[in-house]
């Protein structure tokens, strides 16, 4: 089908969208005016173009009027471009010769004066008619898929995503930078709103992931570099040297009790010590130790080597080097989770200064049966029992001026849980909670909160805490009860700050490696906040869990499932079809200046150097499968060699001209 | 075979283009063998009256250099168009406006104020300014009108071909003469130089571009092996048509853009600004706040003179709007 003939036959279909458009725009007049344009063979209107009869009308008109390209003057292309392109394809046209003139969001919805709005709708549509006249007949680009996935981050979201993809029958690499998977959830005591023991529900999943025939665990590993594109990524993963040969280590645990080094345990949030050779916690998966080289006497001073002497099977390897492995993957799921906003940033509350002012996660360890106190709530400063505890919500959250502007979402519920669990453990104790609002949107959440206040009698005070300071062995909390207007002072044994959560450290580096975006708070930015919440703007890269925004466990797990299902549906085809509206490099024009190459956010451009008659010629070369058609190269190219398909830079002027007529 | 008739003319130009004809050295003799030169202001005394008397289209090829700055320039452009079969915009001024068109940042009044009053060496108490006519005892004298805006030749009359350069280099001049004399011509409207940008012929080693900071030419001794842009020195090469034999580059000076834009581009200066803005500090983009961006950009001391040195009159903006 030659649709680039010299005399195009354009059909223009103007949609009323009920009264959404027709209420403000004289749609008949738009059709009438457009029909006068050169090359327009038909222009008509209908009440709902996207409806079945509307689409049928379009198909019939295309046939009757022998149209070879169409413009639908309707709503935003993000809504129905696909609908109308499929419809025009079904009518035998090239789908890329169907264009949308947005006269709803760009016109009828934002104007009131009908005469002026009509005039504007005519102009918008005229310029799109001009565009469609120059649209080439394009075919989708077929890209083969590597049906393997990489999941970055081994917390609950990553584990779930990996399990779901692996259960779908596809090889999945689960990459975790710590030596064990489990993430933050492994540290939690019990979980709201059911008070399930966190480890009891998580560890079976960890073991399942480790034993799954389709999952390859790459713990103590970090993503070093990502190249390639949708369906065909190459992921370089750095395996940090564990100094223990995991392939022969049985995980007997004989080595670490003898290690003379004692440093604060990350898993116990600094409330207990660990050794230099260690596993983070007894239920670690894989349950194999690593040597922390920063603290090991051998690496620091060249002495000791006790672990080597103890290990009967000779698994200790002080000379182990880091290793880079490269895996091919068709899709990547990013589930790198969150970290707590640093306590020391909350200096008004004595964060980081007073041992008895602690973060939520530290309190989890105090509550946990596997924690340093065996689940007894004891003060970090002197190990004495806690009788009065103050919980401070929104510590760093919802504070536009000083800290984080957003709501960290999980803290209302975990504070309710903290207060409840504390009361369960210390029956004569007092749990005071300062809050701005209590947000309990979630299944069974409000009921849980009700139990905390009404059955366990936690004392909630609406108001912000202004200051926390030490007085003797007490922490004194100053706040205001905004419901009564009275100043409140509480002398407590312990203050727990529900610190804001922020994306895990390293997210900015990872973002660059993956070429995905983050929002103003550093959380991964989804392709569309409502309609594509688990996809990144880079095709083939998906998000799960708190890396994309604060989330609790059920939300993280369901998002992980959603990301996995996106991956699985992608893997269900042998080829991917990609929109052909991409860039082109005109080799007859390219002079090889190299300006475009570093700019391409998708790595689709590279320099190709050929040598002929001793003369080197450099040209930019485009990988069509990688190109997303963003146009960065085309705007930067100083010689006009890089262009968008349909020659947008030139056609744009024609489109502007008809608007200015 | 009868000899072809050719003519040269200079409008608002420095005269360099006229001399450039002679840069082809002894080859001028071959041309004279094949062509009569009817007009050549730098070398011959041809009167306008004689030109007017010639039959229309009696000049086979007219090489017109210089921009249109005065009514005289414009009048001659129309006259030569009428008398010539082929009119060639010869050199950057006729082609794109070139240096004279940088005066489009001002208007007639501002230029006259500066030239006839404000310059440090001027004493002009009576405020005498050029006039288009005045009476002397021999009668009324007319001098051409000075326009507000400098135009390119094709903004005044239809132009058949263009020879780029400030001035056009001997190789392309010679090539153009051969084309005209043999009749082996590209389609009308063509610029008689290669379509690729200068980087194509530039032998320097080029990296994939990221530019950390900008240096002016005097601030840094450029490594003659390496791409200027890679060294932070603005070179218009990527946005400039090739064909000059990269003479400036050979002299270890960056391209300033005299061959004009490449055919796929609408506006040379805008393109280069866009290119430079794209690659400037692209590697540590994240750390750039507005102040740092400002600092970086402020290292470009003369944006119009850098990016539009030759092309201002033919660009989208054409001139500064003065209210």
UniProtKB/TrEMBL annotation, chain A:
Pathway membership: Cofactor metabolism; coenzyme M-coenzyme B heterodisulfide reduction; coenzyme B and coenzyme M from coenzyme M-coenzyme B heterodisulfide: step 1/1
Molecular function terms, GO-annotated: 4 iron, 4 sulfur cluster binding; metal ion binding; oxidoreductase activity
Cofactor: [4Fe-4S] cluster; FAD
EC annotation from Swiss-Prot or TrEMBL: 1.8.-.-
Keyword tRNA-binding: no
Chain ranges of the 4Fe-4S ferredoxin-type domain: 240-270, 287-321, 581-610, 618-647
Disulfide bond keyword on record: no
UniProt keyword terms in alphabetical order: 4Fe-4S, FAD, Flavoprotein, Iron, Iron-sulfur, Metal-binding, Oxidoreductase
Pfam hit, one: FAD_oxidored
InterPro entries: 4Fe4S_Fe-S-bd, 4Fe4S_Fe_S_CS, FAD/NAD-bd_sf, HdrA-like
Oligomeric form and interacting partners: The ferredoxin:CoB-CoM heterodisulfide reductase is composed of three subunits; HdrA, HdrB and HdrC.
Function, as annotated: Part of a complex that catalyzes the reversible reduction of CoM-S-S-CoB to the thiol-coenzymes H-S-CoM (coenzyme M) and H-S-CoB (coenzyme B).
Family: Belongs to the HdrA family.
The protein's name in its UniProt record: CoB--CoM heterodisulfide reductase iron-sulfur subunit A
Species the sequence originates in: Candidatus Methanofastidiosum methylothiophilum
From TrEMBL, chain B:
Claim: Oxidoreductase is one of the keywords in the record: yes
Domain (NADH:ubiquinone oxidoreductase-like 20kDa subunit) ranges: 14-177
InterPro entries: Hydrogenase_assoc-protein, NADH_UbQ_OxRdtase-like_20kDa, NiFe_Hase_small_N_sf
One Pfam family it belongs to: Oxidored_q6
Any one GO molecular function term: oxidoreductase activity
Keywords of the record: Oxidoreductase
SUPFAM superfamilies: HydA/Nqo6-like (SSF56770)
Keyword Magnesium: no
Protein name per the record: Hydrogenase MvhADGHdrABC F420-non-reducing hydrogenase subunit G
């Amino acid at each position: 089908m030659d649709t680039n003939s010299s005399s195009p036959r354009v059909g223009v279909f103007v949609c009323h969208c009920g009264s959404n458009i027709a209420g403000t725009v004289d749609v008949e007049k738009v059709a009438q005016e457009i029909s006068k344009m050169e090359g327009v063979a038909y222009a008509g209107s209908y009440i709902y173009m996207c409806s079945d009869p509307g689409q049928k009308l379009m198909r019939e008109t295309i046939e009757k009027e022998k149209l070879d390209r169409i413009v639908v003057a309707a709503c935003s292309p993000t809504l129905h471009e696909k609908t109308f392109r499929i419809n025009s394809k079904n009518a035998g046209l090239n789908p890329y010769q169907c264009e949308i003139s947005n006269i709803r969001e760009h016109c009828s919805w934002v104007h009131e004066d009908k005469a002026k709005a009509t005039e504007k709708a005519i102009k918008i549509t005229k310029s799109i008619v001009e565009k469609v006249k120059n649209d080439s007949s394009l075919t989708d680009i077929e890209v083969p898929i590597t049906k393997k996935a990489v999941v970055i981050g081994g917390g609950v979201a990553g584990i779930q995503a990996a399990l779901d993809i692996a259960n779908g029958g596809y090889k999945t690499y689960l990459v975790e930078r710590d030596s064990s998977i489990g993430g933050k959830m492994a540290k939690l005591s019990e979980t709201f709103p059911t008070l399930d023991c966190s480890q009891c529900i998580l560890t079976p999943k960890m073991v399942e992931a480790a034993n799954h025939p389709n999952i390859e665990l790459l713990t103590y590993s970090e993503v070093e570099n990502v190249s390639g594109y949708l369906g065909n990524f190459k992921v370089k993963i750095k395996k940090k040297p564990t100094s223990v040969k995991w392939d022969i280590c049985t995980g007997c645990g004989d080595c670490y009790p003898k290690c003379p080094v004692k440093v604060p345990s990350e898993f116990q949030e600094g409330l207990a010590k660990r050794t230099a050779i260690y596993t983070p916690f007894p239920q670690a998966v894989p349950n194999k130790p690593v040597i922390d080289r920063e603290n090991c006497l051998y690496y620091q001073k060249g002495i000791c080597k006790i672990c080597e002497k103890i290990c009967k099977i000779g698994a200790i390897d002080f000379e182990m080097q880091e290793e880079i492995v490269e895996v091919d993957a068709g899709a990547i799921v990013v589930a790198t989770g969150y970290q707590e906003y640093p306590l020391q940033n909350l200096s008004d509350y004595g964060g980081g200064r007073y041992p008895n002012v602690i973060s939520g996660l530290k309190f989890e360890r105090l509550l946990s049966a596997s924690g340093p106190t065996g689940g007894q709530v004891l003060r970090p400063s002197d190990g004495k029992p806690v009788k009065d505890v103050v919980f401070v919500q929104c510590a760093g959250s919802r504070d536009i001026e000083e800290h984080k502007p957003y709501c960290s979402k999980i803290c209302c519920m975990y504070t309710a849980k903290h207060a409840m669990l504390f009361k369960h453990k210390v029956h004569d104790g007092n749990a005071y909670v300062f809050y701005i609002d209590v947000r309990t949107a979630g299944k069974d959440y409000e009921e849980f909160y009700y139990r905390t206040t009404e059955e366990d009698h936690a004392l909630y005070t609406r108001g912000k805490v202004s200051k926390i300071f030490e007085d003797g062995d007490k922490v004194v909390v100053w706040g205001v009860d905004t419901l009564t207007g009275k100043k409140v002072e509480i002398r407590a044994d312990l203050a727990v700050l529900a610190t804001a959560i922020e994306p895990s450290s390293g997210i900015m580096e990872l973002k660059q490696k993956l070429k995905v975006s983050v929002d103003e708070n550093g959380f991964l930015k989804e392709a569309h906040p409502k309609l594509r919440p688990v996809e990144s703007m880079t095709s083939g890269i998906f998000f799960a869990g708190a890396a994309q925004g604060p989330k609790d466990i059920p939300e993280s797990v369901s998002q992980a499932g959603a990301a996995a299902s996106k991956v699985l549906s992608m893997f269900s085809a042998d080829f991917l079809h990609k929109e052909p509206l991409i860039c082109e490099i005109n080799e007859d024009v390219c002079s090889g200046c190299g300006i475009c190459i570093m700019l391409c956010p998708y790595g689709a451009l590279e320099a190709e150097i050929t040598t002929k008659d001793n003369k080197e010629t450099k040209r930019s070369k485009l990988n069509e499968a990688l190109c997303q058609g963003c146009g960065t190269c085309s705007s930067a190219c100083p010689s006009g060699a890089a262009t968008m398909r349909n020659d947008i830079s030139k056609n744009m002027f024609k489109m502007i001209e008809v608007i200015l007529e | 075979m009868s000899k072809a008739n050719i003519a040269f003319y200079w409008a608002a130009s420095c005269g360099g283009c006229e001399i450039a004809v002679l840069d082809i050295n002894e080859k001028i003799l071959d041309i004279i063998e094949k062509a009569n030169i009817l007009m050549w202001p730098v070398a011959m005394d041809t009167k306008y009256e004689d030109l007017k008397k010639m039959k229309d289209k009696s000049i086979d090829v007219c090489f017109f250099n210089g921009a249109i700055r005065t009514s005289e320039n414009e009048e001659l452009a129309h006259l030569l168009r009428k008398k010539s079969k082929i009119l060639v915009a010869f050199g950057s001024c006729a082609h794109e406006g070139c240096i004279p068109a940088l005066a489009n940042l001002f208007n007639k009044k501002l230029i006259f104020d500066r030239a006839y009053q404000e310059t440090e060496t001027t004493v002009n108490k009576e405020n005498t300014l050029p006039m288009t006519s005045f009476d002397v005892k021999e009668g009324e004298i007319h001098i051409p009108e000075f326009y507000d805006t400098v135009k390119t030749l094709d903004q005044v009359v239809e132009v058949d071909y263009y020879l780029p350069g400030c001035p056009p280099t001997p190789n392309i001049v010679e090539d153009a003469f051969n084309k005209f004399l043999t009749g082996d011509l590209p389609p009308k409207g063509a610029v008689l130089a290669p379509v690729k940008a200068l980087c194509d012929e530039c032998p320097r080693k080029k990296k994939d571009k990221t530019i950390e900071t900008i240096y002016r030419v005097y601030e840094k001794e450029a490594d003659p092996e390496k791409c200027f842009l890679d060294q932070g020195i603005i070179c218009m090469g990527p946005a400039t048509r090739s064909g000059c034999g990269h003479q400036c580059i050979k002299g270890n000076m960056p391209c300033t853009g005299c061959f004009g834009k490449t055919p796929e581009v609408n506006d040379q200066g805008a393109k280069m600004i866009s290119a430079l803005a794209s690659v400037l500090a692209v590697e540590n983009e994240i750390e750039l706040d507005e102040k740092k961006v400002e600092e970086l950009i402020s290292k470009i001391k003369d944006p119009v003179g850098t990016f539009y040195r030759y092309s201002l009159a033919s660009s989208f903006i054409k001139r500064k709007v003065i209210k």
